[in-house]
Specification:
Number of helices: 17
Radius of gyration: 22 Å
Helix content: 55-70%
Strand order of the largest sheet: 1-2
Number of strands: 2
Order of helices and strands: HHHHHHEEHHHHHHHHHHH
Structural class: mainly alpha
Length: 410
């Protein structure tokens, strides 16, 4: 990790670990494992993985801007940033939308709803419907694509936000610029945390829909952005925060222990009724703790010598880096593959799906008929299938998509 364009190889491993956690969490809810097993409360808290992804995005994407502002250099064109972000996510997302829709089916009722999914419009407050039997609600056709929409909104706002900071902090001494950047991150954190508290306290009719919007998670991105400012500061501006972060990062086991303690604390609270869902007032401390735990967990991959220590060498190993590299397609396809594996392994699953889609009157639990199956079998087989699909798509879709136009826009 040297120079103005450092590489953080261990963060790829965290993406792969996070994808595995997401899959286990979804498989546990889908098979009823959360309610039936003593391990349920632990697996339910694997939803820590999504906040971790937001912290990583805030760190990696804001760090070049922070470095440029701190060293009084040009920010770089917003057009190139948008083009590269679009090339990174849209080909994989559109292929998953078309592929899952054609091969496994998506309950997207109208052309308008398809267009809304294609353009990720729920992230911008545009209602898009998906249906289960006769019941429809606002969501994405690919359920977990909500986080892709949140990320896309962050991508759109980051360049103008960085440009505003650059103009505001221009001609100030470097220490003042660093303080200004950290203050801006603190402001974003306050906006995100305040929005979440207001939604949970007021419980407006659109509370559930707000889980599709960036403001509900802005504080998590701000955590990563603040870490980026600390990391991007030149050596002469390192200061106490940089030295403290590097000292902590040089003891990865302690960082992971701190994150593990916070994780264990959260397992003592009743888990949410659905993955990544609101759960009353518990949602506010949950996301607060997840932000701190994510920072502690990720610290060794953001600061210090990335080749030092056994844990970092494991994280930078080829298998874990590969799992992180294919994590986008893994994420997009895994939930549909969970359902397909259940169709293969659960007896009479087609009849259970029909009963869940059209529950009999007076049977409030009829819609839960499909929440069954062997968790270990479903999670294990789905992981293997998701990895195979993601590996093929990474090589045939993601890499060509990211390389497209690079000669024209070096």
């Amino acid at each position: 990790m040297t120079g103005d364009r450092p590489h953080f190889p261990c963060l790829d491993a965290y993406r792969g670990i996070g994808m595995t956690m997401v899959l286990c969490n979804h498989a546990a809810y889908s098979t009823g494992f959360i309610q039936q097993s003593a391990l349920g409360p632990i697996v339910a808290r694997f939803d820590l993985s999504v906040p971790m992804f937001f912290v990583i995005s805030g760190f990696l994407l804001f760090r070049p801007y922070a470095r440029a502002i701190l060293t009084d250099r040009p920010l770089g064109g917003a057009g190139r940033f948008y083009r590269r972000r679009a090339q990174r996510i849209l080909p994989s997302y559109w292929l998953a939308l078309a592929g899952i829709g054609a091969l496994l089916g998506l309950a997207i009722p109208t052309l308008r709803d398809w267009i809304g999914n294609i353009l990720l419009l729920p992230a911008f407050g545009v209602p898009v419907q998906v249906c289960s039997g006769a019941t429809c609600h606002q969501a994405y056709g690919i359920t977990q694509a909500w986080s892709i929409g949140v990320e896309a909104t962050f991508y759109l706002l980051l360049p103008p936000f960085a440009a505003l900071l650059a103009r505001t902090l221009a001609r100030r001494p470097a220490p003042s610029r660093r303080a200004g950047l950290l203050l801006a991150c603190a402001g974003l954190y306050g906006v995100g945390a305040g929005f979440r508290i207001a939604v949970v306290a007021a419980a407006p009719p659109w509370a559930r829909t707000s889980l599709l919007w960036l403001p509900m998670f802005l504080d998590l991105f701000a955590v990563g952005m603040a870490l980026a400012v600390i990391s991007a500061a030149p050596a002469e501006l390192g200061g106490r925060l940089r030295r403290a972060a590097e000292r902590a990062a040089d003891h990865p086991a302690l960082c992971w222990l701190a994150a593990g303690v916070l994780f264990a604390v959260m397992t003592r609270f009743a888990p949410p009724a659905e993955p990544f869902g609101l759960n009353g007032r518990e949602y506010v401390p949950r996301q607060f703790v997840y932000g701190i735990a994510s920072a502690a967990w990720l610290l060794p991959a953001m600061f210090g010598d990335q080749a030092a220590g056994r844990l970092r060498r494991v994280l930078a190993s080829r298998p874990l880096v590969h799992l992180g590299a294919v994590s986008l397609s893994f994420y997009l396809w895994h939930l549909a593959l969970v359902e397909q594996v259940k169709a293969w392994t659960v007896p009479d699953y087609a009849a259970l799906r029909a009963a869940a889609a059209n529950p009999q009157p007076g049977n409030p639990l009829g819609g839960l008929e499909t929440f069954t199956g062997n968790f270990w079998l479903v999670a294990g087989l789905t992981w293997l299938l998701s990895l195979a699909v993601a590996t093929v798509l990474h090589r045939t879709v993601e890499l060509p998509g990211m390389r497209f136009g690079e000669r024209a826009h070096p």
